[in-house]
Amino acid sequence: MNCYLPSTRSDSAEVHRQATALVGRLSQVHADFSKWWVVPDGPKDPYIPLDDADAASASIRRSDRRFFKEFPGAESDGSIGVLLTNSGSDKQWRERGNVFLSVKPSLGRICLEISRVSEMYASPGDVVWSLLRALSSDPRVTFANTNIVQMVAEEIMLYSYDRSVYRHREFLGWMGFVHDGLTPAQLPEAVRTEWHGAGTLILATELLDLSSSAAVEQVNRVEMKLAERGLLPLTDARLGE
């Protein structure tokens, strides 16, 4: 799941502040998301609790220094962000579905990845919908989408690459958020729409199975309607509107 917002240059303390506010909203979705740690840089490094502000900020600064040392040509007037997980050990990380939360203010991007969501939760759609609502509660968010990675006929497929409609626009995928108020009558192709802040949460299909032509076609129809309304951002203007 990706959320897009205006990029901002932030130091380590501001990155920590934004990450803390974000996980505070996620913690209301499910007990699994109540506590977060900075992902270790190496196998011998500890998991640092995000709520330890001094240690977490210091870890962010160390990661920044390593990055800018490796890429000296990169812009260095801010932090590159932080990578978090909802687990305090390798064992717990595997048990909770290999969760990552990337918070990158300088890129204007928040990304939440759950590798085994269908195994972890009895109602994965409800959990992901609630996570989407929490992430897009930030009033700066302008767009959000949810990708699916699935093994189909012994081949790993990605909705955004293998099944989406456009190559020059963002995709919506399983569910997402657009910065415009839409009613069900304006987007009848979607299973569910919900006004949320200054925009709309959209559930394109109950279950996005990449092996199901019917499910994929339904998501495609939602994306085409959003594109007609100018609500799927361009990723390559050279390919036209």
Characterization of this structure:
It is a single chain. This protein is an alpha+beta fold. Helix content is 32%, strand content 20%. It has helices spanning 12-26, 53-70, 90-95, 117-120, 124-135, 159-163, 213-228; strands spanning 2-4, 37-38, 48-49, 82-85, 99-104, 109-114, 143-145, 149-152, 155-158, 175-178, 192-196, 199-203. Strands 3-2-4-5-6-1-7-10-12-11 form a ten-stranded antiparallel β-sheet. Strands 8-9 form a two-stranded antiparallel ribbon. β5 and β6 form a beta hairpin. The model has no long low-confidence stretch (mean pLDDT 94).
- Low-pLDDT stretches: none
Biggest β-sheet, characterized? 10 strands, antiparallel
Distance between the termini: 25 Å
Helix content: 25-40%
Order of helices and strands: EHEEHEHEEHHEEEHEEEH
Q: What's the topology here?
A:
Layout: E1 2-4, H1 12-26, E2 37-38, E3 48-49, H2 53-70, E4 82-85, H3 90-95, E5 99-104, E6 109-114, H4 117-120, H5 124-135, E7 143-145, E8 149-152, E9 155-158, H6 159-163, E10 175-178, E11 192-196, E12 199-203, H7 213-228
Antiparallel strand pairs: 1-6, 1-7, 2-3, 2-4, 4-5, 5-6, 7-10, 8-9, 10-12, 11-12
Helix pairs in contact: 1-2
